[in-house]
Amino acid sequence: MPVEHFVSSLTPKELKDSYTTINELTGSEIEFLDDYLAQLSPEQYKSTLSKLPVYEDKKMEKGWDVFKHKIPMILFLMIYVFMVVRTFFKRTSIIPLAGMLCCFYMMAQLGLKNWMIFLIWIAIGLTIYFTYGYKHSKLRNI
């Protein structure tokens, strides 16, 4: 589970108890829990989470939280299969398909948060583009 989601899900008592536990484990006083957890390696992070006095369901993602990160890869696989079948039946070159699939694969590896930010910015950009185009169109005045 991402550090920011974990820390923001803690109650004030859990947060205080977590600070106490980590201070005992490290032997020094940490200032920010999320900064400390973010600097740990994945193995250290998992080990530290297991020692914190927090409900187990807060320590790991499950259900929709896990599935939503797989949606881009599922879409990539569907596009991949469609394009390979189309290339085979239409007898077109595989080179453009390979380039396109590489780009789709890299896009599928982006997180859901990145996609949401992209969609917001593309909506803002398209709104500005079409609003400007509508107001300044030479065809509109004919």
- Work out the helicity level: over 70%
Gross morphology: elongated
Mean pLDDT figure: 82
Q: What fraction of residues sit in β-strands?
A: under 5%
Distance between the termini: 58 Å
Number of helices: 9
Uncertain runs: none
Radius of gyration: 24 Å
Topology order in helix (H) and strand (E) letters: HHHHHHHHH
Q: How would a textbook summarize the main sheet?
A: none
Number of strands: 0
What structural class is derived from the secondary structure elements?
Answer: mainly alpha
Descriptive notes:
This protein is elongated. The longest helix has 24 residues, at 112-135. It contains 9 helices and no strands. It has helices spanning 3-8, 12-26, 33-38, 42-51, 56-59, 64-67, 71-90, 94-108, 112-135.
